[in-house]
Structure formats: structure tokens, C-alpha cells
């Protein structure tokens, strides 16, 4: 379904001219776009939730070789029965 399908459906259900339905749909989409740009969350019950998220930097997605990560220190137990 594309925007023009939504406009047609709104015009059909509400019995208003297609031009008025297009204005209504445009207004709703514009309000949602502005809210998302301001970092707000949009929740439409029974439909879904929309929110903008910060994209990860490309560098974070690159796997790094294990040699670049420090290995944890070896754990030594003073009371180990194997070390008598």
C-alpha cells in the first residue's frame, strides 16, 4: 500500500473529496515526521511504535582481531588442591 492508496481509502470511508483526504494524510505524515526528528516516540495503538534511533558507526561494526583485546589475567587460587 502506498500513500495514494491511503488517500483513496480515507476519501472513500469519510466521504470527503480526494483533495481534502490528501491534505489530511499529508498533515498526519508531516506531524509524524516532525515528531520523529525531534526525537519523540510515536505509538499508534493496535498498529505499531515508531522511534528514531542513532545508527551505529561503521567502525563499531568491523570485527577486531582477538590480539587487540587484552586477555584477562590468569586466575590463581592459593587453596587449590592440585598445587600442593
Structural class: mainly alpha
Per the principal axes of the C-alpha atoms, what is the gross shape? rod-shaped
Number of helices: 3
What is the CATH domain class of the domain at 3-52? Few Secondary Structures
Spatially, the strands of the biggest sheet line up as 1-2
The CATH architecture classification of the domain at 3-52 is Irregular
Structure description:
There is one protein chain. This protein is mainly alpha-helical and 84 residues long. It has a domain at 3-52: IHF-like DNA-binding proteins (HU Protein, Chain A, Irregular). Helices cover 43% and strands 7% of the residues. The chain is built from 3 helices and 2 strands, in the order H-H-E-E-H. It has helices at 3-14, 18-37, 58-61; strands at residues 42-44, 48-50. Strands 1-2 form a two-stranded antiparallel sheet. Strand 1 (42-44) and strand 2 (48-50) form a beta hairpin. The longest helix has 20 residues, at 18-37. It is rod-shaped. The N and C termini lie far apart (75 Å).
Amino acid at each position: 500500500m502506498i500513500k495514494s492508496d491511503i488517500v483513496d481509502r480515507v476519501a472513500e470511508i469519510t466521504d470527503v473529496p480526494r483533495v481534502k483526504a490528501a491534505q489530511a494524510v499529508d498533515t498526519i505524515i508531516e506531524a509524524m515526521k516532525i515528531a520523529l526528528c525531534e526525537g519523540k516516540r510515536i505509538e499508534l495503538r493496535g498498529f505499531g511504535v515508531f522511534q528514531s534511533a542513532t545508527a551505529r558507526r561503521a567502525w563499531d561494526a568491523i570485527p577486531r582481531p582477538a590480539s587487540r583485546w587484552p586477555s584477562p589475567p590468569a586466575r590463581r587460587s592459593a587453596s587449590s588442591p592440585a598445587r600442593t
